[in-house]
Amino acid sequence: MIDLNGIAHIQLSVRDLERSRPFYRKLLHDVFGMVVQYDDPATFYCIGGRTGVMIRAAAAEHRDTPFDQRRVGLHHFCFRLRSREDVDTLHGALVEMAAKIVRAPEDGPWAPGYYSVLFEDPDGIRLEANFVPGRGNLDVIKDKPLPPRGM
């Protein structure tokens, strides 16, 4: 069995890269402190927190197709933050950015202590950021020993 070490990167196709670039620069670089690795006419890519996020323009024939989280493909993705306060700080930054907030920070049923904010990028792609204390649902798995923290 392979011991998975997370997701290396996520690449999103956006309708208009120049319209989306300021949103992702503010979110990923300014708010999350990720490093901009590529910022050229075709690509915007940030890395940090053991995560990479890339945006590129969708193919020309799909640029008029709006995002629909109910179609086959990406529904949403979620950043893991380190505290409830980080979720609240992100929410404040999203308000300043005039981002569409789907759901303000609230507790959720997904894991003990789950606290999250749900928002959209300029194309309506759903993004979430959460905080779950400890190891969240991993703490309730009883049939498999977990690796030590930091692995």
Number of strands: 8
Mean pLDDT: 90
- Give unreliable regions as ranges: none
Using only C-alpha atoms, the radius of gyration works out to 17 Å
By CATH, the superfamily of the largest domain comes out as 2,3-Dihydroxybiphenyl 1,2-Dioxygenase, domain 1
> How many angstroms separate the termini?
16 Å
Helix/strand-derived category reads alpha/beta
What is the CATH class of the largest domain?
A: Alpha Beta
Q: Give me the strand/helix succession.
A: EHEEEEHEEE
Query: Within the largest sheet, what's the order of strands?
Result: 1-4-3-2
Shape assignment: globular
**Helical amount among residues, as a percent range?**
10-25%
Percentage of residues in strands? 25-35%
Query: How many distinct helices?
Result: 2
As for the number of domains, it is 2
Largest sheet: 4 strands, mixed
CATH fold group of the largest domain: 2,3-Dihydroxybiphenyl 1,2-Dioxygenase, domain 1
CATH architecture of the largest domain: Roll
